[in-house]
Amino acid sequence: MIEVIDVHKSFGDKEILKGISTVFENGKTNLIIGQSGSGKTVLLKSLVGLHDITSGDIRYDDRSFLDLDSSSKKRLRQDIGMLFQGSALFDSLTVEENIRFPLDMFTDWSEEERRERANFCINRVKLENANDKFPSEISGGMQKRVAIARAISLNPKYLFCDEPNSGLDPRTSIVIDELIHEITQEFGMTTIINTHDMNSVMGIGENIIFIYQGKKLWEGSKDDIFHVQNKELEDFIFASKLFKEIRDNNS
Ligand SMILES: Nc1ncnc2c1ncn2[C@@H]1O[C@H](COP(=O)(O)OP(=O)(O)OP(=O)(O)O)[C@@H](O)[C@H]1O
To answer: Per 3-state DSSP, what percentage of the chain is helix, strand, and coil (rounded to 5)?
Structure first.
């Protein structure tokens, strides 16, 4: 569980996060949504300590991130899997080498143990027979699977995903969303996804927080998002013509 308590973040005199509080629970797929520039990435980066927050608290399973010394922070970071926009694979490494990279960096496991774990992750994301391929030889959807396998290789408690569907076609996006959702439940991870994608919201939005100009304006699930009377949220949802048509046809 990650608890965000009244988090403020300013750059100079510009306040970007204006008192955000929420709880991201274990085994849940949590979505942060909002327009471009609303502060989603700043919030995600603040959660992992890439930005120092101006005030407030961030608690990982009851431990304040701010109180951790540098070696505890380092240990906590190893409990965090990261899935970056655009997959961020190493082009010169094979699929298996990409997935083994965190294991080589952060564990003292034997060669055999590392290979076993890498293959477990490869199988889990259904990438059998791709071990020796290079990123340029596989599709964007497969690259994303490699990135997911790499993100879970150290068996993280927390999984952070920044726009996991960017660059993917709608069908592949759904498959990737479902994979993230499944592994979140299976491994009991606390998953946080930054997204603009209303299809993701409707597919896997168990807990959604809507950020508008640095404030949390709404929080809820995909089941109640269409029933909310909030102008800013409605503007965000129905910016998509398709969702507007669905609403108009149902009213
Ligand atoms: N390092 C920084 N220094 C100064 N301002 C920053 C910095 N990082 C982000 N900002 C500002 O914070 C605001 C929120 O940016 P952020 O990247 O969090 O938006 P976002 O909601 O993730 O948008 P997008 O969906 O386009 O990625 C923007 O006005 C941005 O210019």
So the answer is: 40, 25, 35
